Amino acid sequence: MSDIFKKALVLRILSALVLAPLVLATVHFGGIYYNVLIGVMGLILASEWANMVGRRPAWMALGVLYVAVSVWALWRLRLDPEWGDMTVFWLLVVVWGADTGGYVFGMSLRGPKLAPSISPNKTWSGFFGGTLLGALAGWGMVSYFRPEIALEMAAFQIVAFSAVMAVVSQIGDLLESWVKRRFDVKDSGAIIPGHGGLFDRVDGLVASAIVLALINIVLQGNVLVWLS
Question: What span, in angstroms and rounded, lies between the C-alpha atoms of 208 and 88?
Fold first, then answer.
């Protein structure tokens, strides 16, 4: 394990230790606290997107739409008074698991590149590692809220769906990487040590939140409750 990898990993861990409790507490309390959090997040993401695309009007409009829909999705997911907090907690740990697994497995095992023309550092080992860790993290979170299903058939459904959303999260990551590569930008910003900009940290979250909200709309309910 290289010194650069170790230093980057330490920065990621320290950033997570500072930010994760704040985010989780805000999700738990919901209401105005949560709405302010995602509202501020949306403003920062829109600003970072504008800088990434060189303030080109068409690209800025596309980015504002993408960010606005993702903020709406996160707001809608938390609305459910009974399952809203569990749903957002679950989504967060799946995304964090996919991001952490992708980074650790990818940097440790390396191997064939996943999409070298989009993101040269991403590997298939990171992709599968991120999917696995995201799936297990999702199962763990739902099992925490609903321990009666931890070892039932529903658990396999939760693991499978968590894996799918971990893949969606990684696609969101690749989408942002494609935009940065197209406009020759290394990071979306420098607001989070070890991560770059906020968009670099939540690129998977914004994509997966949109997909999850749309699935819930189609099902006319909460997909996690439906699966369990």
Answer: 11
> What predicted TM-score, i.e. pTM, was given to this entire model?
0.92
> Would you say 88 and 157 are in contact if contact means Cβ atoms under 8 Å apart?
no
In degrees rounded to 5, what are phi and psi of residue 114? -80, -50
Q: Which residues pair with 119 in a beta bridge?
A: 115
Domain boundaries, the chain: 3-227
Residues with Cβ within 8 Å of 172's Cβ and at least 6 positions away in sequence, in order, are: 203, 204, 205, 206, 207, 208
CB 227 within 8 A of CB 161: yes
CB atoms within 10 A of CB 35: 15
pLDDT (tens, 9 = 90+) of the chain, 228 residues, equals 556 666 666 666 766 777 889 999 999 999 999 999 999 999 999 999 999 999 999 999 999 999 999 999 999 999 998 899 999 999 999 999 999 999 989 988 989 999 999 999 999 999 999 999 999 999 999 999 888 876 677 889 999 999 999 999 999 999 999 999 999 998 898 786 656 799 998 999 999 999 999 999 999 999 998 887
Structure tokens that stand for 194 in this block = 């070890």
In terms of Cα–Cα distance, which of 88, 95, 228 is closest to 154?
228
| DSSP secondary structure, 58-71, as one string | HHHHHHHHHHHHHH
